[in-house]
């Protein structure tokens, strides 16, 4: 889990960084921390890399305040976790308009911050699984639940989500090994997310987005068994 902290007061920023490093050691969880002295620097970084899971932002910053930074982050990624830090309680109300994860008043105690970090880590670990893929345009963070299917096309792979398709040069087998049990390789050239299947008949899957993908004859038995087991879990 990668955490970005942003505050234009360097002494506080350095202190918060130290607190988070101590929390990382005490909780023994795999987190990394990157710090920024202003919101513009943070936004420029995230626009290119998109590899941050949690943002801890001070409200009263210049030249862009933390609330405006958070709104811009939300436009780029609707699922990252946002935490506000400030000494002014009135900002708490505004924070909930952008789906704020937590609101912490300064001065920050390690006990409070440790609880917040552990809660967010558990949320991401349980429900926030994702792939990071790379192509010539940059890095893309794709949540499992948003992926409908993956297919090979010529020498590359296309990952289809609800809103877009991302081309990458990973082999299908590598992606298959990284996905969870909600995915199944129904064809040599296709991996499907069982969550998004609408109907299945005559060796053809229809997805919720009306895409149709094939099931190969020699994978039919395994796929049918997998699909029935999947549905059984939700009927228990």
UniProtKB/TrEMBL annotation:
Keywords: Phosphoprotein. Gene3D superfamilies: 3.40.50.2300, LytTr DNA-binding domain (2.40.50.1020). Transmembrane segments: none annotated. It holds the Pfam family LytTR. Residues 2-121 form the Response regulatory domain. SUPFAM superfamilies: CheY-like. The keyword Disulfide bond does not apply. GO terms for molecular function: DNA binding; phosphorelay response regulator activity. The keyword Phosphoprotein applies. The modification 4-aspartylphosphate is found at residue 58. Residues 131-229 form the HTH LytTR-type domain. InterPro entries: CheY-like_superfamily, LytR-like, LytTR_DNA-bd_dom, Sig_transdc_resp-reg_receiver. PANTHER family: STAGE 0 SPORULATION PROTEIN A HOMOLOG (PTHR37299:SF1), TRANSCRIPTIONAL REGULATOR-RELATED (PTHR37299). May play the central regulatory role in sporulation. It may be an element of the effector pathway responsible for the activation of sporulation genes in response to nutritional stress. Spo0A may act in concert with spo0H (a sigma factor) to control the expression of some genes that are critical to the sporulation process. This is Stage 0 sporulation protein A homolog. The gene is agrA_2.
